[in-house]
Amino acid sequence: MSVQKEVKRVTTHVLAEMKLHGEKISMLTAYDYSMAKLVDQAGIDVILVGDSASNVMAGNETTLPITLDQMIYHGKSVVKGVTRALVVVDMPFGSYQGNSLEALSSAIRIMKITHADAVKLEGGKEIIESVERIVLAGIPVMGHLGLMPQSIHKYGTYTVRAKEELEAQKLLEDARLLEQAGCFAIVLEKIPAKLGKQVAEELKIPVIGIGAGGGVDGQVLVIHDMLGLTQEFSPRFLRRYLNLASEIKGAVGNYVADVKSRDFPNEKEQYN
Ligand code: KIV
Description:
There is one protein chain. The chain starts with a helix and ends in a 12-residue tail after the last helix. Helix 6 (100-114) packs across helix 7 (128-136). 42% of the residues are buried. The chain is globular and about 70 Å long. The protein is an alpha/beta fold. It has helices at residues 3-6, 12-20, 33-41, 53-56, 68-81, 100-114, 128-136, 152-155, 165-181, 193-202, 223-226, 244-260; strands spanning 25-29, 46-49, 86-90, 118-120, 141-146, 185-189, 207-210, 218-221. The chain has an 8-stranded parallel β-barrel, surrounded by 7 helices. The structure holds 3-methyl-2-oxobutanoic acid (KIV). The site of 3-methyl-2-oxobutanoic acid has 11 residues, from strand 6. 3-methyl-2-oxobutanoic acid (KIV) binds next to strand 6.
């Protein structure tokens, strides 16, 4: 019997148990009530209210413009649709990098208003003091290393990170520091599979990958990508489970045609 099938509510302890039993963790993003409800009902373990909302919901090129208030709005909407999954809200760019007190107050705002279960921050050594302070306040923290989209202007590209030994060593050290600081899990984005496996084997906490290979403890994808709502984005790590973009365009096209031809509404679709 799997750990996750027995639980009514996924907690950080359940995720730790899953790692212990070698059961893979499933995680997807969601940004609104209706989608979160479906994703939860389908049996996902973790829902991430990602700052990728900046891209897929708000149409920005990067994740940088999304604000704390906007993340709180998305987080609050998602939590209302979820009864089982663990809900993690991304702390947006500018809400935690200043200092650890600012980070704590942003995390507290997220938790108080959204009723989510945890927050996620990007970075290693540079943000350790903030992670420690937030964890000390009783707020579960998920780390995020490898490709960190909030630092895109520093790196310049979205290519695979930590291919070179020096960067791989820093990532490994950062992962250790995040575990020591009390993170309950870490996301590794777009790094060599070998390194992902090494981190997952070394750490006791779950390591969840997006483009980090199959040797990690779980996988996360952006829901718009895996459902085929986004069309331009086709990285190697992405598996598309639907082609919703063409389904939606087809349905809308049919609706437009039915309205124009006066086929809709018919007799049964109106009141007497
Ligand atoms: O914001 C996001 O969607 C993320 C995932 C890519 C892990 O951080």
